[in-house]
Design a protein that fits this description.
The chain is mainly α. It contains 4 helices and no strands. The protein is 77% helix and 0% strand. The mean pLDDT is 89.
């Protein structure tokens, strides 16, 4: 199966399309096949993006990226602090 990345806006559009098809009587398997995604992906998308608007999803993605960047920064600074502390104590 081909793996492609979808933008949050694309995911929300696909979820809206899926909701319309499910409301018209299609089952989840048929909808997933038409969307070109697995059922697991569909359920993950629904849990993560269900009920969101495209702008909210884009903002969520930006916040997740910023959070990852800040976590890395904190980890780097903690390592620097530990190294400086060892150096000050003369442990090397």
């Amino acid at each position: 199966m081909k793996r492609t990345r979808h933008s949050p806006e694309q995911i929300i559009a696909k979820l809206r399309e899926a909701d319309a098809k499910l409301a018209s009587g299609a089952n989840i398997g048929q909808v997933c096949q038409q969307l070109g995604v697995s059922e697991a992906t569909f359920h993950r998308w629904r849990n993560q993006y269900g009920g969101m608007k495209a702008g909210e999803a884009k903002r969520l993605k930006e916040l997740e990226q910023e959070n990852a960047r800040l976590k890395k920064l904190v980890a780097d600074l903690s390592l620097d602090k530990a190294m400086l502390k060892e150096l000050a104590e003369g442990k090397w």
